[in-house]
Amino acid sequence: MTSRNNCKTLLMTFGAVLALSACGGGADRVASPGEGSFPPAPPPVTPPPVTPPPVTPPPTGASCPSGTTDVGEVAGLKNCELPARIIGDFTLENLEGVVYSLNGRTDVGEDMGGDVANPYPQARQGILRIEPGVTLFGSAGADFLMVNRGSQIFAEGTAAEPIVMTSRESVEGTTDVNSIGQWGGLVLLGRAAISTCPGTAQPGSATCEAQVEGANGFFGGNDDADNTGVLRYVRVMHSGFEVLPDVELNGITMAGLGSGTTVEYVQVHNSSDDGIEWFGGKVNSKYLVMTGIDDDSFDTDSGFRGAIQFGLIVQRDGGGDRVNEMSSQDLPYRSNPVIANVTFVSKGHDNVVVLNQGTLVNYYNAVFTGGNPACIEFQSATTEGTFDSTYASCDTPFAGGAGGAEEAAFNAGTNNSTGASSLTDGFVNGANESAVPAFTGLSSVNAFFEDVDYIGAVKDAGDTWWEGWTCGLTAADPC
């Protein structure tokens, strides 16, 4: 390009004065367009501001703690993925802007066998601690958390800051009342006695073990006081997954758990399979809430012999099977759950309480309502149930009809009656339930029980043990 052309370019670009200064005079000088001087330079033009695309940065200071993997963000939160296996002492901290996730099966520890005094020599223990307020989620049915025999979980939330185990959709806020089966669930395995022994092994021996439903893990052994840790103020939501036909993960699976394990203030919401299923063991549980379960809310099997007090179950309108189903091996080692102060609210999808073979269950201070057609059903000659201070408010109280085994067992107890439900707010005792005398001396039946002066799980409007840490029980507090 010539010098003249260069100057033209500069003139066009920067204005006359700047161009002359750069190019000089002489033959290359551009003639004046008018009398006297060059026209004034145009005023500077301020370009319009450029609006950058919206960017949501991670919350200030949010980073994944050691041992987890940063896998991006979900719903504006830092997504920290757990390792596939946890060995040693590992804590999920409650960090601002951080949520934790599972990728497939996540194991806590390795199976240490059924003999508490002689664990497998190469097996390693894991201890998972979860702080109050932590959220942990799975994205698919194959994502689940399993605590193996000999390892422990300490998930200790508070009423104000429960620990939430849920689905990715729940974290993203896209779930509704019918959202079920969006991730696997929680599986806890212990070394307490079970009834499903292989070969000639006997219940309570180290070799009496079984593989847990839906996962490749073993449970059972010789320690009825086994301690798998603590679940306190924990909510498990939108879980359950069919691994194979009739082989499913529950909201929470408690298999072979011993009495040293603490389970209290626990909710399972919208599980596609059972809410909680107990396979053998002697773990005791208190303050349990089941809402929207699509199969059985409480299910016991494999010789479960623990105690349960304060259990509140409310099915959703569009789903649910039995509220309480119990089965086991036949004699001599059968299930013997002891259950007190429960309110079972069926929505008419099946009978409320169904007892299968090999079960002897004792109910105290119970309220059953809404079964279709019946409140109580025995399905086997080896089924037995006892009832004291129980109120049954179904159109047909007993599946076997007048003179059947169910009616005979009910009438053999004390302070039992049938009639219309008067529950208020869906699950709070009304006049009819409050009129039933409570069973006296619960603590003498089982030292785990508290002595109370009412039946059912919720005495009255002032009894609010379920508030704050649960969801889905009232329209004002949806999940």
Helix/strand layout:
Blueprint: H1 3-14, H2 16-23, E1 69-74, E2 77-81, E3 85-86, E4 88-92, E5 98-101, E6 105-108, E7 126-130, E8 135-138, E9 144-147, E10 152-156, E11 163-167, H3 168-172, E12 185-189, E13 210-211, E14 218-219, E15 229-237, E16 241-244, E17 247-249, E18 252-255, E19 262-269, E20 276-279, E21 284-291, E22 298-301, E23 307-314, E24 324-326, E25 338-345, E26 353-355, E27 360-369, E28 374-378, E29 384-388, E30 391-393, E31 396-398, H4 405-412, E32 417-418, H5 431-434, H6 442-445
Parallel strand pairs: 2-5, 3-6, 4-7, 5-8, 6-9, 7-10, 8-11, 9-12, 10-15, 11-15, 12-18, 15-19, 18-20, 19-21, 20-22, 21-23, 22-24, 23-25, 24-26, 25-27, 26-28, 27-29, 27-30, 28-31, 30-32
Antiparallel strand pairs: 1-2, 13-14, 16-17
Helix pairs in contact: 1-2
Structural features, described:
- By secondary structure, the chain is mostly beta strands.
- Helix content is 9%, strand content 32%.
- It has helices spanning 3-14, 16-23, 168-172, 405-412, 431-434, 442-445; strands at 69-74, 77-81, 85-86, 88-92, 98-101, 105-108, 126-130, 135-138, 144-147, 152-156, 163-167, 185-189, 210-211, 218-219, 229-237, 241-244, 247-249, 252-255, 262-269, 276-279, 284-291, 298-301, 307-314, 324-326, 338-345, 353-355, 360-369, 374-378, 384-388, 391-393, 396-398, 417-418.
- It has a 17-stranded mixed beta sheet that branches. An 11-stranded parallel beta sheet has the order 3-6-9-12-18-20-22-24-26-28-31.
- Helix 1 (3-14) packs antiparallel against helix 2.
- The longest helix has 12 residues, at 3-14.
